[in-house]
Write a structure and sequence with these properties.
The protein has 13 helices and 23 strands. It has about 425 residues and is an alpha+beta fold. Strands 12, 15, 18, 19, 22 and 23 form a six-stranded antiparallel β-sheet that branches. The chain has a five-stranded parallel β-sheet with strand order 3-2-1-4-5, with helices on both faces. A four-stranded antiparallel β-sheet has the order 6-9-7-8, sandwiched between helices. Keywords: ATP-binding, Ligase, Nucleotide-binding, Purine biosynthesis.
Length: about 425
Amino acid sequence: MNILLLGSGGREHAFAWKIVQSPKCTQLYVAPGNAGTSSIAKNIPLSITDFEGIKNFILEHSIELVVVGPEEPLVKGVVDYLQNESETASIPVVGPSQLGATLEGSKDFSKRFMQRNHVPTAAYETFTAEDIEAGLAYLETQNLPIVLKADGLAAGKGVLICQTLEEAKESFKEMLIDHKFGAASAKVVVEEFLQGIELSVFVATDGKSYKILPEAKDYKRIGEGDTGLNTGGMGAVSPVIFADEAYMKKVEELVVKPTVDGLSKENIPYKGFLFIGLMNNNGQPYVIEYNVRMGDPETEAVLPRITSDFVDLLVGIGTGTLDQYQLEISPEYATTVVMVSGGYPESYQKGFPISLPQEAEHTIVFHAGTSTNDKNQLVNQGGRVLAVTGMGKTLESALTNAFSTVENITWEKSYYRKDIGQDILNLMK
């Protein structure tokens, strides 16, 4: 098959790495891709939101499967566009419809969907600038800390956990009146804070049947010990010790089944990946959020553990035949450490040459924010630059493999967290 993959991050490099291992893949194109994908596939200088350009490329290069990596084109309706154009209507696309993508595009929409379908989640209310006084009064009724969420897409930065009522009121006003997150915070969801350990569960679905992929735990904060600003993700670990068989059975019965059934019942076309952000609260799963694509950097820890043919999985999703796919998962551990540009998630400098050693055994280096300069040197081009995944029979050996490679990669002002996976290791002792 000729396959087109949309996106340019670490998730897309992991997808590309997995797709080209399949004998079913003749040629993989990545639009726009990064320096990592260029070594295993053909990068195409196409914007992920240039729907007409994407359609023309599909037709010119006899593309037989389209895989959408990031959320932005999904929320903007790329799947609907391709399916409504007569020339591309029959080509399978892995990704939900625009309505399905609203599960991530609007926090308020997803909370209402959960309520209607009896999916356990934190109590909440939604407010706009028009009812700001009611919102401020509602904040006074809440226990601390208080969670504020921008309704729309805010590049993973639209969630604030406020420790005092004053901070919550100030942030609430900044979001609604000062447009702290732009149009994303035109509505703000005020949510009950849930205690517990977070877990990312990934589901592949064709809208009828589903497969639960390996779970992962990610690390959102920039600083060690989960301190500092929220980021797009600083690392991930899979499998997760507390997600045992009994707990995952609960997740399936209480969360996955009612979610997939709800999509079907409400006629929301959904052929793609669903990332369910969960809080394990005293052994009970509560949904913090839905994302309508694979997570990043969790994908870089999840995909290396899938041993069955990945293209078959994608085709099953896209053609509605997922029930025929046999998912096989390795019991090995995968741990991912993200290397970022100094200053991220705030301002940072780009263009520093990266010294990359040869890939060590049991380690994969996934590129995210990388490109090559006019001297053909690999340079940092984004905030999150590389995601280094170590594999091992134990969590300890997987972490050792990841960190020993990370320590040999250098560029000016690079940074990474040295405590990825340590909390899980401590739980295992």
